[in-house]
Fold each of these.
Amino acid sequence: MAVTTTPVDDGAINGFGEELRGDLLRPADPNYDEARSIWNGMIDRSPAAIVRAMGVSDVIATVNFAREHEMRLAIRGGGHNIAGNAVCDDGLMLDLSAMRSVRVTPERKTARVEPGATLADFDHEAQAFGLATPLGINSTTGVAGLTLGGGFGWLTRKYGMTVDNLRSVDVVTADGELRRASEDENPDLFWGIRGGGGNFGVVTSFEFDLHEVGPAVLAGMVVYRGADAPNVLRHVRDFNADAPDESTVWVVLRKAPPLPFLPEDIHGEDVIVVVPFYAGDIAEGEAVLAPIREYGDPVADGVGPHRYAEFQRAFDPLLTDGARNYWKSHNFSTIPDEAIDTVVEYARNLPTAQSEIFFGQIGGAMGRVPTDATAFPHRDAEYGMNVHTRWEDPAMDDACIAWSREFFDAMATYATGGVYVNFISEREGEETLGYGENYDRLVDVKTTYDPENLFRMNQNVEPEPAA
């Protein structure tokens, strides 16, 4: 498909806008700059027009208009995607952020979620009934983008990936048709949506399974000085090797932020933060997690009963929008001593005080799903690592990106060769690592539902060329 680099006729765009229930914004409109701004401050793109969709009819109209006028099309859900694929230059941006309904059916333990909803929206509604599904760890993340890439967080070891809890979707495909996809309807499309990113259409509704969680859970942070990092990492790794599915322990290496529960003399110093979470009875969790909390000489221990929805917001202050962000990702089946030594070396030389390296423990239930059951392929991963480089000054772009790439390369020898598709900042060949051995099947699904590659603002799977 030819993709225009200049806007189509203004009259055509204005006429299209008159057909919408939502708003159509052009560069001269007062809310245009706000609408094109997303979480990652590095992204500065200017669409020819922005559609603020109010419902499925607006989505269908936008997809049809973009296809008929051969315009580049970008889809914004929560706007949290690191690569900034929610915004394009010159083309058409479809903003779904106003479509954020969450409807819980407690007797069935299911939820219907629109694509503009955030994790906070979802958790707020589901926790009213003591229910939840595995999501991420930052409440401002969009449910749609998280889900389409796989989705993991505190509940993953107990209940699987986000996509493992997806029952069905409503999706507008490239031909402008609204389709339902599930295990029984359009199963090939449903397979691809569960980990294949936004390659196959615009999902207008997600149906999830829910589980009894909270409202209080045992969770929190145990903070150690940076000098203790080698021993703490080894201890957490060894503890996690035999931990039950209810137990999840993540590790973050960074400079200590000025949080109120941390001693002032540690602010700005190297720390290692151990974050345990127990998805079960709190008394049982106290016993299971005791070896984590009793280890070494921490400077702070904030572990205790927390309301689940509140803990999902615990890291929000460190991930506010507007900063410049660049990520790199690896998966690991284990973390050998040599890898730990490498991590500690780079953590001592983080390029900014906002940057961090984290290891999210996964495995458990997610690892017992066959690799080919969903498009998300990385069922052998016990840890997902994110090299999260974050800064404010554009003059630091080159240095911060170079540091991230160097660390990524240094860790590659210990990794599985897979990466998490939602953690990819730019197209450097990593998209094929993100889809792994399921890539060829994704090409087949892409060729069936989007043969002209209308949905290309993503970690793209290119369709087979026309014969």
Note: The mean pLDDT is 94.
Amino acid sequence: MNDKQHTIKSPVTVSGIGLHTGVMANMTFLPAPVNHGYKFQRVDLPGQPIVAADVDNVVDLSRGTTIEQNGARVNTVEHTLAAVVGLQIDNVLIQLDGPEPPIMDGSSIEFIHALEAAGLEEQNALRNYFEIPQGIHYKDSEREVELAALPLNDYRVTVMVDYNSPVLGSQHASITDIEQFRDQIASSRTFCFLHELEALYKQNLIKGGDLANAIVVVDRVVTEEELSNLATLLNKPKVAVKKEGILNNVELRYKNEPARHKLLDLIGDLALVGRPLKGQILAARPGHAANVAFAKKIKKQMQEAAIQNVPTYDPTKEPVMDINKISQTLPHRYPFLLIDKIIYLDENTVIGVKNITLNEPFFQGHFPGNPVLPGVIQIEAMAQTGGILVLSTVPDPENYWTYFMGVDKCRFRRKVIPGDTIIFKCWLLAPIKRGIAKMEGKAFVNGKVVMEAEMSASIVRKEGV
């Protein structure tokens, strides 16, 4: 698995009809900066609103995963997201001039080919993996659905499906390395059963469905009259059934293609947690509703871990931002640039490092002979760490100022002295609104809290920029 974040080198476009909406659309993948993540943009709507690929934005699960934000909706995102996860792409903006990504051949392989043609580019930031800390489980007893995530220093996925069908039977599919996705999973196509077709049409779904982009499994005896009606429904001159029960002589790419496609869907849906995962994922009879419910449990665990866990600092690992990168983001300079490294950064959390030495200028006057780091310096260093988080939400942080607005519930637990290394951890208490950020922060030395506070700040664009 990659250590560094990746984007694509150049824009690339694919075009086609949407599976459920039946609307033609052009979808363009564009390079995106570090920590951007996956975002869709509806360029056909006023203001070209952006929809983040986030499990909290899921609004519909009717035979696919639909997300909505800022008044814009994007249908059936799972095949697209599976492709970027499968290629270990971290940051990409996906522009759409319609409501739904093209279904292409019903799999992810054509997206894979397009992204590979654009080329992948390594970025100067570490991937923000979420390592499953303990077993996370989801179960729907009524549907006999069960999913689990177990600790593992890798990303492995195993899926079992059983449709009580003589045609499909019980099937398994798995990958033991995400790099296997491209060749073993990406070309597996979406499918449905014959008895579901009319119901899906009545639900105003699969308007773009075609025997060229979906497998139809025939799980019962079909009369010639029914085949004739199906031909009319699918706008085909004629349809037929193969011996093994696949409509219109479609050849399966794998004997267990349905199970492989369910694995593809699962990887795409789990992308909505917002970070690459490390863990063993086991799924029995998964579907979009279960996948999304499971993703929400993982994200909740992720958020709790970010708040509760004491951050660890390994000085041998390359930081997300070194002092030069920090200087390009923050306007502070000596002797008031107080952060040495940023070792973690995502949309909600930042972790910074400050090394304390006797050479700090304030030690000349602050308790000479008994050097103790001033509390106001600790607060300012924490605020600068939080400032990195706030500025990471805009594409051009060099054009913004961040201003301290308030400090609340500040407590100093232990003294900090030269030789200590402080780890500052700040996280947003609520989404940034109207340029106002509210966050909580804690400072750690040797795994113990030395200071904590709640802070608020405003982000303001520089005049004339």
Note: Residues 47 and 70 are 10 Å apart (CA to CA).
